Amino acid sequence: MALDKPYQDVPGTIIFDAEQSRKGYWINQFCMSLMKAENRERFKANERAYLDEWAMTEEQKQAVLARDLNWCMRTGGNIYFLAKIGATDGKSFQQMAGSMTGMTEDEYRAMMMKGGRSVEGNRYIGENGDAQAQNQPQGAAGKNKGA
User: Fold this and answer.
1) Rounded to 10 degrees, what is the CA torsion of 87, 92, 97, 100?
2) pTM higher than 0.90
3) In the CATH hierarchy, which fold is given to the domain comprising 15-90?
4) Cβ-contact 24, 59 below 8 angstroms
5) Where are the domains of the chain?
6) pLDDT tens, position by position, 75-124
7) With 19 labelled, which of 74, 86, 106, 113 sits at a CA distance of 20 to 30 A?
8) Measured at the alpha carbon of residue 108, what is the angle toward residues 40 and 68, in degrees to the nearest 5?
């Protein structure tokens, strides 16, 4: 019997619940392995070979190789574990969060300094707020990605 999950109607949000935890077990274990310097070195030397040592799905591996954190999260990755990938790449958490919105680091910082996204239009999927799928990507970095 599936649980009712009314929180899945929050736009731009992936809730890390028990189901996501089970789905993402191996991608999150991989991320935790990056806490050791020798594992970071092995990963940077041959990313695909290192990923193939883990029982991750092919989709999870592709998401990591693409450094697409939203994709990683959809496959069960937890942002706090995924931060280890960014740290391995020399990125700050702010840079990583900006990349998830299509914003540059400066755009993301400015948005957060103004209090973050408004809740107006972002309470439920189907409204027209800035977190809604039809309004993504938000920033210059995302708009330039397709160019």
Assistant:
1) -60
2) no
3) Protocatechuate 4,5-dioxygenase; Chain A (1.10.700)
4) no
5) 15-90, 92-117+133-147
6) 999 999 999 999 999 999 889 988 888 888 888 888 889 888 777 776 76
7) 86
8) 40
